[in-house]
Amino acid sequence: MDLHWGPPGLCGVDEAGRGPLAGPVVAAAVMLDPARPIDGLRDSKKLTAAARERLADAIRERAAAWCVAEASVAEIDQVNILQATMLAMQRAVAGLGRAPDDVWVDGNRCPQWAWRSQAVVKGDDKVAAIAAASILAKTARDAFMRRLHEDFPAYGFAQHMGYGTAAHLAALKAHGACPQHRRSFGPVKLLLDQAPLF
């Protein structure tokens, strides 16, 4: 299925990592260059890891502008995951280095910002620039979680990327939370509430 290209000067925005129990939430903003099309763009969740990495390289090389930004675990715990996601998106668009004419955001809401924008439900499967943003956000976050795995191998971050799998929950129970766990998230909070005080 061909993705919608959108109007000239369009910036697509998407995030990765709203659901996991650990790690930052990452957002990407992408303005594609009509003169340098990229074949194979689609929702990052429908691509293999190898295809995502190949496309991410192509996006960084051929896009008119792109930026990846994040909100930290501390920010997530302080303001909640929705507001942290909006913050990461604001940072990504602000970091483009050029002002977009329109910003289309995957999902059902947009951050508060100065740009003309609209939310596009399932936009990562409909709009080329949003699909490109989804790929950059996902690959950047996965790379962060693989680095985190090197620091905290007991949790298996390289396998589940911080999501609440059975293996991750078992590791949490066995080892407690690491500094990159989101303490405001239910399974982590519950575990910490039950942990003995030293």
What is the topological layout?
Blueprint: E1 10-16, E2 25-31, H1 49-62, E3 65-71, H2 73-79, H3 81-94, E4 102-106, E5 117-120, H4 128-151, H5 157-160, H6 166-175, H7 186-194
Helix pairs in contact: 1-4, 2-3
Offer a concise description of the structure.
Helices cover 41% and strands 15% of the residues.
Structure explained in plain terms:
The protein has a five-stranded mixed β-sheet. It has 198 residues and is an alpha/beta fold. It has seven helices and five strands. A hairpin with an 8-residue loop joins strand 1 (10-16) and strand 2 (25-31). It has helices at residues 49-62, 73-79, 81-94, 128-151, 157-160, 166-175, 186-194; strands at residues 10-16, 25-31, 65-71, 102-106, 117-120. The mean pLDDT is 94. The protein has one domain (10-150): Ribonuclease H-like superfamily/Ribonuclease H (Nucleotidyltransferase, domain 5). Helix 2 (73-79) crosses helix 3.
